[in-house]
Structures are given as C-alpha cells and as structure tokens.
Amino acid sequence: MRKSARTRIRVLARCRHVPALGLLACVCFYPVDLSAQGRVVAQEPLDIVIQAANSLSLRIGTTGGTIDRVTFTVTQLPGTGAVAGVSSGANPVPVRATSTPTGARKILTADSSIPLNDGAGHTIPFTQISWAGTNNVPSGTFTGSPSQQIFSTTTQINNGTMSFSYANSVYVASGTYNARVTYTLSSP
Amino acid sequence: MMRWIAPILCLCLFPFAADAKQLEVFPNAITLELNTVDFDRVESTQGFLQIRIDTRLLRGSRWRVSLELVLPLESGGRTFQAQALSWTAQPPFVSRNLLPNQRVIVGEGPIDGRTVEGRLVWRAGGGIPSAERFRGRVMVILEELP
Questions:
Q1: CB–CB contact B36 A53 (8 Å)
Q2: Around Cβ A56, how many Cβ atoms within 10 Å?
Q3: Least CB-packed of A38, A106, A107, A146 within 10 Å?
C-alpha cells in the first residue's frame, strides 16, 4: 500500500507540467480556423478566367448541313406574273443571324454570280429571282454579283424569313435550270 | 523544464514545415473559353486542375477537400453565375458545380498514410451576351476530420 501511494505521488509529480504542455499544444497545433465539421489544415488559391469569344452565327433554311432547294414550277407564259418558289425545307425560308457581342454589326452578302443553267448551254440570270423578307430581313432581287449586300445591321435576327419568287419575264428554252446562292455573314 | 522545450518545439514546428506538402494544386490558374457553336448552344473549352494530398501529415480519421468561391467571377460589374462553373472527376473526387457563398465538397477519404491524387476537368456553361473576360478566385481547402 505504501509503495503504491509513493508511485501515485511520483506520477502526480511528473504531471505537474501537463497543464503547461496542454496549453502549448493547443496554441501550436491549432493555428488556423476551425470549421464546423473539420479542421482546415491547408488552402491553395485557384484563379479562374472565363473568356467569351466573339462569334457570328448564320442559318438560312434548314438546321445542320442540309442545303435547301427552292423550286419554281413555271406553267405560264413569260410576262403573265411572278411564280412563287417552294422550299424543300420550311416555307418561308427561315433566316437567323446573330453575334457575340449582340450589338456587333452583321453584314450578310450573297454570291449569285453563277446563273441558273440547264446543262445544255442555256441560262437564266439570277436577276429573275427576288425575295420578300420579314422581321428585319429586307426584300430584294439578286444582282448576279459575287458579293451582293443583303443587309447590314446591329440587331440580332432570330426569326427572319425569305419568300422567293421567279419573275418569269424572259423567254428561255424549256428545261430544268439549277444554280446555287451562297450567303456569308461577316462583321467588320 | 528545459528538457521539455526541444521536443515541444519540434512537435509545434513539424506541421508548419510540412504544410506545403499536405495539399498541392496545379496549376494555380485556369482559363475557360466560351464559344457559340450554334446560336443557343455554347461550348466551353476544358480546364484541368490536379490535386494532390499527402495524408501522412494529417491527423484525425478522414480528410476532406472543398472548393469555395472567394472572389466572384466578375467583369465590369457583371457577375458570371457560380453554378455555371462545373467540373467532372474520378473517385475519390466527385463531379459537381460551384455554389455561391458556400463550400462545395470535392472529395473525402480516410487518412491512411497514402497519397491521394486526382484531376478536376472544368467547364463553364451558359451564354454570355458579349465578349467579356470574367475573373474570380476559388480556394481549395483541405480539412482533417476527427
């Protein structure tokens, strides 16, 4: 019993430094914020930059890579009135032209420099074909030039349309005439 | 009394000396570019963030890594939504998106002396009406749980 008491006293004597040790440990091991659930031990910053690029988007006709075909079926003599075209896609032909930034100037041009031809040497000039535009798309007639300006605008064109017609004012050899118009949207 | 000081100092300084190795993040900046590909569809380039945790220097039973947006993504008074910034990851990290004014847990695991490594692949979503450059800062936070 006496030996045991002496041991206890010795242990207590050794523990005199324990409170001081505990205090030091607290100060040294908890140098950063304590969160509600865990202890933050390290932090590293990460800088993030998000860059929106300038862009132009144009769609005339069907979505995707499809090239719509507008057909004029002429059953009347020249001079008896225009013939309305019918698109293989939506009718009238949808037009969308947008940009980032939204207020950027957008210039739409058309290349109609290669006239309609029947493959047998007969041609019809593109000046025979016109369109009626809606929703900020102006109406006009193809000039047969490689860079005819269709419009120049700073507004976003989201739901414009074009309805095409053939003037049918010149005599041409009977047959099927084909050609392609290529539109380009650009920003200065 | 003096015999206590050296070991205590060693114990105290050890975590500080090892601090840089507990959590490593590379790189410390990423740039994401938003491109309009088809009118309403915006595509983001990817940004890669490597995270490395050395659990040998941690105490407690589990580690946890969180992200916190400490500087909102801003450009001339306009703010890019935190939610539109997301990442994909493989375990033990998880795929999520940022949230404003709160920590988002990226991953959690046992403190078992192993090194934990992972990659977050960042993307930005949503459309931006003008060509702007948003800048912000995220803090990668490592915690040890009891």
A1: yes
A2: 16
A3: A146
- Is 0.90 exceeded by the ipTM? no
Digit-coded pLDDT (tens) for B78-114: 888 999 999 999 999 999 999 998 999 999 999 998 9
Does A12 touch chain B if contact means CB atoms closer than 8 Å? no
Given an 8 Å threshold on Cβ–Cβ distance, is A59 in contact with B145?
Answer: no
Question: How many CA atoms within 13 Å lie on the side-chain side of B2?
Answer: 0
* Residues of A with Cβ-Cβ distance to B110 under 8 angstroms: none
B11 three-state secondary structure = helix
Q: Which residue in B has a C-alpha nearest to residue A100's C-alpha?
A: B130
Nearest C-alpha neighbor of A56 from the set A153, A123, A163: A153
Query: Which of chain B's residues have a Cβ under 8 Å away from the Cβ of A24?
Result: 8, 12
Is A21 an interface residue toward B (CB < 8 Å)? yes
Secondary structure (3-state) at A103? coil
- Does residue B38 contact residue B30 with C-beta atoms inside 8 Å? no
Could you tell me the pTM of the whole model?
0.63
| Domains of chain B and any CATH numbers | 21-145 (2.60.40)
| Rounded distance between C-alpha atoms, residue A95 and residue A72, angstroms | 20
